[in-house]
Amino acid sequence: MAAPASAYKDRQFLAVIGDEDSVTGLLLAGIGHVTQPPDSQKNFLVVDSKTDNAAIEEAFERFTTERKDIGILLINQHIAERIRHRVDTYTAAFPALLEIPSKDHPYDPEKDSVLRRVRRLFGE
Amino acid sequence: MSGTGNREAVFPTRQSLGLMKAKLKGAQTGHDLLKRKSEALTKRFREITRRIDEAKRKMGRVMQIAAFSLAEVTYAVGGDIGYQVQESAKSARFRVRTKQENVSGVFLPAFESYTTEGNNDFGLTGLGKGGQQVQRCRETYARAVETLVELASLQTAFVILDEVIKVVNRRVNAIEHVIIPRTENTIKYINSELDELDREEFFRLKKVQNKKQRDTAAQDAEMRAKREAKAKADSDKENEDAGDEAGQPDILGEQEDQDVIF
């Protein structure tokens, strides 16, 4: 049933996979975090047209399953679109996956995995 | 006989009938309770869904405003600050903590945002020019992230509730369509078997009674025959005796003397 407290009590950071503008803005808000030097992992990934899908998938995997200190993962919708199969099959409660609009790509509720689930549940 | 349907493997005894009846009652109570739980959760679920819908729309607007303020920064600073910002990010100022809320026995975690004071990674960003815009942009984005955090907690609640509702509904359906019919079937089976035994027992008793009656009747008849035979023998003997005494009437007897007429 409900997740045990240990599943989310240490989750205190937000992570972001997005284009440069989104990441810059969110970092300005102060969500950026780099872990202690030995492995110094960033909690953000900047994706541009040159980044290939494997890299995005790897970052997605790292933020969702490997790191246990991330509570919310923000991902630009047009990037989520590129790894749609991964996003759609992601059903865990933690970290929460949130698709956000970017500057060049306005928000489209039709593509959102959660909103699609909502619609499917209510039979629309 | 109702042994054809799906039923539990029990011996048809009164004890197991009692057990089955208790089980049926328990299943019905459980079904009612779970149904109510499922309804409460669904109500909550619908409310959350509605709020998610609103929050997603709000997020669209807020992110647009935030993106615009970032564009202002780029214009004011006169160059791209992205690289600088990415490199100077060290420790998160904006963090979330989780708390939980109890809805009908289900713990729904909710995120709450807080900012740690003291560290400011971007103190020097926009030092040359556009510092004011950078500041405003940071505030706008902080507000946007707050909205996102709110949305994320709604969404987490949504995911967890979805799962829990599925489990509860599955249980409700299992009880309603499997356990209750099966228990009822078992009760019916036990009842019919017990009735059958009752009928058998009744028939047996009747048989025994019949036989006893027949035996008694035969005995009676025999006795009667014996008695009659004996009685007959007695009366024959008596007759013989009576024949002997008929010659000399008993003058001293009680019988009235005939009047003697001279």
UniProtKB/TrEMBL annotation, chain A:
Keyword vocabulary terms for this entry: Hydrogen ion transport, Ion transport, Membrane, Transport, Vacuole
GO MF term list: proton-transporting ATPase activity, rotational mechanism
Topology of this chain in the membrane: Peripheral membrane protein
InterPro entries in UniProt: ATPase_V1-cplx_f_g_su, ATPase_V1-cplx_fsu_euk, ATPase_V1_fsu_sf
Signal peptide start and end residues: none
One Gene Ontology CC term in the entry: proton-transporting V-type ATPase, V1 domain
Domain of life per record: Eukaryota
Cited SUPFAM superfamilies: AtpF-like (SSF159468)
Subcellular location: Vacuole membrane
Pfam family, one: ATP-synt_F
PANTHER family (alphabetical): V-TYPE PROTON ATPASE SUBUNIT F, VACUOLAR ATP SYNTHASE SUBUNIT F
Family: Belongs to the V-ATPase F subunit family.
Subunit structure: V-ATPase is a heteromultimeric enzyme composed of a peripheral catalytic V1 complex (components A to H) attached to an integral membrane V0 proton pore complex (components: a, c, c', c'', d, e, f and VOA1). V-ATPase is a heteromultimeric enzyme made up of two complexes: the ATP-hydrolytic V1 complex and the proton translocation V0 complex.
Function as written in the Swiss-Prot or TrEMBL entry: Subunit of the V1 complex of vacuolar(H+)-ATPase (V-ATPase), a multisubunit enzyme composed of a peripheral complex (V1) that hydrolyzes ATP and a membrane integral complex (V0) that translocates protons. V-ATPase is responsible for acidifying and maintaining the pH of intracellular compartments.
Name the UniProt record assigns to this protein: V-type proton ATPase subunit F
Organism: Hymenoscyphus fraxineus
Lineage: Eukaryota, Fungi, Dikarya, Ascomycota, Pezizomycotina
TrEMBL record, chain B:
Gene Ontology molecular functions: proton-transporting ATPase activity, rotational mechanism
Gene3D superfamilies listed in its UniProt record: 1.10.287.3240
Annotated Basic and acidic residues bias: 212-236
Keywords from the named record: Hydrogen ion transport, Ion transport, Membrane, Transport, Vacuole
Location(s) in or outside the cell: Vacuole membrane
Segments of this protein annotated with the region Disordered: 210-262
GO cellular component: vacuolar proton-transporting V-type ATPase complex
Function: Subunit of the V1 complex of vacuolar(H+)-ATPase (V-ATPase), a multisubunit enzyme composed of a peripheral complex (V1) that hydrolyzes ATP and a membrane integral complex (V0) that translocates protons. V-ATPase is responsible for acidifying and maintaining the pH of intracellular compartments.
PANTHER family assigned to the protein according to its UniProt record, in alphabetical order: V-TYPE ATP SYNTHASE SUBUNIT D (PTHR11671)
Protein name according to UniProt: V-type proton ATPase subunit D
Organism: Hyaloscypha variabilis (strain UAMH 11265 / GT02V1 / F)
